[in-house]
Amino acid sequence: MGIARASIEKPILTWLVILGCLMGGIWGFATLGRLEDPAFTIKQAVISTGYPGASAEQVAREISEPLESAIQQMGEVDTITSVNQPGRSLIEVEIKSTYDGEALPDIWTKLRAKLRDAGRDLPQGAGQPLVNDGFGDVFGLYYAVTAPGFDDAELHRLATWLRRELLAVEGVADVELAGLPQEAIFVEPELALSTARNLPPQALVGAISAADSVVPAGTVDRDGQRTIIEAPEGSDSVSEISGLSVGVGGEVLNLYDVAQVQRGRVEQPSLMIRHDGTEAFTFGVAGLSTENIVAVGERVDARLGELFVEMPAGVELHPVYQQHEVVDEASNAFLVNLAMSVGIVVLVLALFMGWRAAMVVGTTLLLTVVGTLFFMAIFAIEMERISLGALIIAMGMLVDNAIVVAEGMQVAMLGGRSSREAATETAGKTQVPLLGATVIGIMAFAGIGLSPDATGEFMFSLFAVIGISLLLSWVLAITVTPLLGHYFFKRGTAGGAGAYDGALFRGYATLLRGALKARWLVILALIGITAACFVGFGQIRQQFFPNSNTPLFFVHYKLPQGSTIHETSEDLSTIEAWLSERDEVVSVTTYAGQGASRFMLTYSAQKPNPSYGHMIIRTGSIEEIPELRADLEAFGRSALPAGEFRTERLVFGPGGGDPIEARVSGPDPAVLRAVGAEVIAAMEAASPNVLDARTDWREPELVIRPAYADERAQSAGVSRDDLATALRFATDGIAAGVYREGERLIPITVRLPRDADVGLRDQPVWSETGRHFLSVEQVIDGLDHEVQNTLVHRRDRVLTLTVGADIPPERTAAEVFSEIRAAVEAVELPAGYALDWGGEFENSAEAQESLGRQLPLSLLVMVLISVLLFNAIRQPVIIWLLVPMSVNGVALGLLGTGLPFTFTALLGLLSLSGMLIKNGIVLVEEIDLVRAEGVALKEAIVTACVSRLRPVVLAAATTILGMLPLLSDAFFVSMAVTIMGGLAFASVLTLIAAPVFYYVFFARSERRADARPEPAVA
């Protein structure tokens, strides 16, 4: 007994399947994890190492080089990059894409062990390498807090309280605070008094450092009881620090006798944040990876609502980004799109097959979708942008199986057969071809889903969801569809009107006979059209991932290297004032010194730099962004000519970096800068679309270097360290300890009073051997000025300078890259130097290379399945000849709409190929079956194709119309146009080209069979 017949004769099992899909789908939808973007692992760690007093080139040579050498010994490492600044090394380690997220903890443990060993050999004065492997944490619930009138200590207490309370919320993994004012206790000795009493700054530092230290004081054992003794509590207020005693030359002085002690903000903080022009700090909430972010967000919002009642008056919370609301909106939009797609399918089927067929196929389609949600929940596949899109993509292929079975049953029953006979006949003929075609459709996406790189991880849910939904659609098509057909379809009478006697079928039969007669002309026309469309396809703009449909965009502002954070912040206030007058602006969050916390998986903040400014601008809708962005760029460039002013749209998908990047590597920094200047000149000369070309080394900075007078200084007992300490005391100050305020550790700094009118040359320096002060001028031969690189980049242990550039909003990176590539590659490089491309070109090439490595296996499996289905060669060749022609409709659709060919359009093209092969298999299989009944070749082709006309046309129509809801989605619009245009043309290929190819391939064997003499009859 066949599966289809059993589903009718044992309906209880089929109804269990139906109820399982319905109830499981409802449960799955309620319990599925929800994210905005698929969770892909950022396989990077950041290693930070301090080396106070060293130049950037010293840091690169003495810190980064030995650490990178140790890291390079790990076979798991793909790329090592470092940024070297005066006193600080920042190394980023990227792990090979073949290692998944589960392998990373062991890799990070191995990395720490390597760095611990290498750290022992670092020069004196260098700190221990600190590894941050939480570089990719996403704080999707991101808020700014303003509290005008509150002092800094109150702000810290407020932030600490908020963090503590939110960490207690179920499902919250971490809360990150940023932008809080940085405070310090400043001890400023009166210069005249301290020099008169021979009180060096080091004496103050020593007294302060021991004032609040935490040390053990031992234990006491008495009567068998062990009692711990705690050390006396340290100084815990500014007044108590002022009262500290300092011993000098046998005399004990109080600190307030010789110095002013005050609490205040540090002069050069690392980050300053404002929200809508008001000083603010931010907190970002990250949910556990196993939690539904929508549920976590709702719990966080509820808790914030409770906490808001307890907050002091004047404190305001401002959402910057709320991932849970974005995800919830996307989920609701999916339900709307799903309902629209199912409604469109039912309406089209009702028009062309009647309401009974519409109910049968529509119900099967709905069960397939909800059943897919059930299996997604079982396999822990979250509901996010890609998996939801996969369901929409699959919609066109899901309906095929049900249409073929329903149409076959309906026709057979109209011819007088019973529902059981019709189900047995239809499923018996089509279930194996449909299964093979379904597997081929799944394999079309295997190359993307099984790719080991970030793009493959990002898109894996696409492959998984399409695989689940298509296999489920086949199962339901041969079980549920026959049962529903048994209930809904009416049985006709044998000898009644033919199912294909209508005008549409007769017209198609006439057209097909004409095409077979003029087959060579048809083939030439197809070749010509395909060649023309391939040429047109080359004119389509290329883009890796499209812009996001989130109504956010960014401002990047960069003053010359060496500018202070206050200059950066002041310049950005000019932009804030201009934006405050624009009605389309909802909010503006401003950052000076670095970027925001990672509030989206695809967002990457700039590294800390006082001369860098960043703005997150939210508008009412994405339609308002282009005009506002253009006006803002024009204003920003004119109002702030001293800086580099750029805007940037948020982009979907993994990647990073500038749209255009060229890397120059070699041993000499001066040569690298010269070659970088040549590359910029070549770019700008080759294309007017290269905007704001720049290098990541930025401008060199002016450095003052005292010329240490060896003989005079050493005879006076002043070492180089003594001189450096004196200069640090006169400028940034000397770290002397910490002031404990609850869980806060506020640094204590000894420094020259800010109002002291003392030049560097006149600054006193202490002689430890002479026990007296000298002026700096007495131990130096002047102050030399030199220009130094303060941003030194390395890549894989080689000095590397990267030239980056932006492009106009209306152009794609691929277009501009093609304009400049030849000119840049023509730049003559000195021996020992190399040029490599980065940016979108590299990201796209890596993704396509990874896809290319998987694609041969996928294609091999697809070809083998098609060969095994027919147990022949010619039929699969006919089907695969159609595949290159699938690009015809794609080229026409994208050129007609002006949309670029994005990575999602590539998905649409793969989907289209799967649909085309699937239709081709069902059509060719039908021709073979009709021929097996003894019908002549030409008539068999016409008969089979006419019988497949309605399923092919309806599948195409329902798919094309089902894509309509996606035309308003920025992420999927190019894919929707690809499928709509391609499938419209592919239907013609299936119904005209496939029969013509079949006739050409089999006409000769048919003639030979006709010419063979009949066997003699005895």
From TrEMBL:
Cited Pfam families: ACR_tran
Gene Ontology molecular function terms on file: xenobiotic transmembrane transporter activity
Regions that span the bilayer: 12-30, 333-352, 359-381, 387-411, 432-452, 458-484, 520-540, 851-870, 952-973, 979-1002
UniProt KW keywords: Membrane, Transmembrane, Transmembrane helix
Keyword Calcium in annotation: no
InterPro entries linked to this entry: AcrB_DN_DC_subdom, Acrflvin-R
GO cellular component terms attached to this protein's record: plasma membrane
PANTHER family xrefs: CATION EFFLUX SYSTEM PROTEIN (PTHR32063:SF18), PTHR32063
Protein name: Multidrug efflux pump subunit AcrB
